[in-house]
Amino acid sequence: MKTIVRAWSKYLNSGDNAAEARLFSLPAVMIQGPTEFRLRTRAQVAAWHALLPCSGRIVSITVQGRYATAVFRLGNRKTSKCDAPGTLAAAQFTIVRGKIAIWEQVPPPSAAPAA
Fold this sequence. Notes:
Helix content: 10-25%
Order of helices and strands: HHEEHEEEE
Shape: globular
Distance between the termini: 13 Å
Number of helices: 3
Radius of gyration: 13 Å
C-alpha cells in the first residue's frame, strides 16, 4: 500500500497526471471537505489531478487495513504555485485490489512520524 501512495506522490510531483489516473479504480471518488467527486473515466481522474496546485514531499505514511494515510509537506508544482508551500497536508487513500478507490483530503496530525 505504501508503494501505491509513493507512486501517486511521485507522479503528482512530476506532473504525470495520466500515470496518477492509472493508479485508480473506476469510478474513483475524490473528497475534499464537504465536496465529493465521482470520476468515471481515467481522463476525468487525470484532469482532476491537473487542478491540484501543490506537490507534496511525503513526511509519513501509516497503514491500517485498506486505508493508507499520508502526510505531505506542500510545495510548488511544475505547472502551478502552491497556495500554502511548506505547510503539512494529509490524504487518506482507500485501496482495494491494488488500486486507489477513494482519495480523501484529511487534516494532518499535529506531529507526523517519520516515513
